[in-house]
């Protein structure tokens, strides 16, 4: 009897942002595969084998999951946020595409999760109310020239931009290069938000402008949001202003 692979989105952090579907499946799986910091969120229980691994071995992790499923296990492959957004769903399908024929017949199901840009947007108000795009700044898997081309195209198209993977210890410089480029493309007054560890105890939201932003505040737990020309703030007597990108293009101009 063959098993099954569930690719499960754990959301941005807190348990209340995990879907009921994902919670139920996490109770059923026999094996859990994922990056240490994600599998660490799951409480051990009898009958569950947890296989934590390093961040860089996504394809190995996927092949391991597929092999376990072929041997009859019910495997959960976990990702933070949504598993389809810069995460494990693509890695698992890439392994299937390049793997043995029998992997294609496996039962594989992707369970959605709340992505970081949605959580960050919820904290800020409605920055994604108009057209937006998401770009990963990590150049581990693609050349930096392509990232630059996409940042230029996003500005040309006047999209709100959600930047994932803005910086890490191994890549401290890209976010500075990205801001240098964005400053030549968008007005200095453009609203910019750094939403760090959204939903976790160490959450921190910095709301600023493209002209004044310090890209150094971004780390690997930060989602950076760059406004479009229609994105603006609504002042409030207390706390941070709301960030709004109106749904109607004329309204905010
Ligand atoms: N699949 C995930 C994204 C994986 S890429 C999702 O849908 O959210 C990892 C990047 O996601 C991080 O570098 C950061 O940019 C962003 N991220 C993940 N969790 C976050 C959180 N709680 N707060 C802010 N950004 C987060």
From TrEMBL:
The gene is cobJ. GO terms for biological process: cobalamin biosynthetic process; methylation. Pathway: Cofactor biosynthesis; adenosylcobalamin biosynthesis. It comes from Rhodoblastus acidophilus. NCBIfam families: cobJ_cbiH (TIGR01466). PANTHER family: COBALT-FACTOR III C(17)-METHYLTRANSFERASE-RELATED. Keywords: Cobalamin biosynthesis, Methyltransferase, S-adenosyl-L-methionine, Transferase. This is Precorrin-3B C(17)-methyltransferase. Residues 4-213 form the Tetrapyrrole methylase domain. SUPFAM superfamilies: Tetrapyrrole methylase. Signal peptide: none annotated. It comes from the Bacteria. Its EC number is 2.1.1.131. GO terms for molecular function: precorrin-3B C17-methyltransferase activity.
């Amino acid at each position: 009897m063959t098993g099954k692979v569930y690719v499960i989105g754990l959301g941005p952090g807190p348990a209340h942002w995990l879907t009921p579907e994902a919670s139920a499946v996490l109770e059923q799986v026999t094996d859990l595969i994922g990056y240490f910091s994600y599998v660490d969120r799951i409480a051990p229980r009898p009958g569950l084998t947890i296989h934590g691994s390093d961040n860089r071995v996504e394809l190995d992790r996927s092949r391991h999951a597929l092999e376990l499923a072929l041997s009859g296990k019910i495997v959960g492959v976990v990702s933070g946020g949504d598993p389809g957004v810069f995460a494990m769903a693509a890695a698992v399908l890439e392994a299937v595409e390049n793997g043995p024929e029998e992997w294609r017949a496996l039962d594989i199901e992707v369970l959605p999760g709340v992505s970081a840009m949605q959580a960050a947007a919820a904290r800020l108000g409605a920055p994604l109310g108009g057209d937006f795009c998401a770009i990963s700044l990590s150049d581990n898997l693609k050349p930096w020239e392509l990232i630059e081309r996409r940042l230029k195209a996003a500005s040309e198209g006047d999209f709100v931009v959600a930047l994932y993977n803005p910086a890490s210890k191994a890549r401290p410089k890209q976010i500075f290069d990205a801001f240098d480029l964005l400053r030549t493309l968008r007005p200095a007054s453009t609203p910019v938000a750094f939403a760090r560890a959204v939903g976790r105890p160490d959450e921190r939201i910095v709301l600023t402008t493209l002209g004044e932003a310090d890209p150094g505040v971004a780390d690997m737990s930060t989602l950076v949001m760059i406004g479009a020309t229609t994105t603006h703030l609504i002042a409030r007597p207390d706390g941070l202003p709301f960030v709004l990108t109106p749904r109607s293009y004329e309204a905010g101009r």
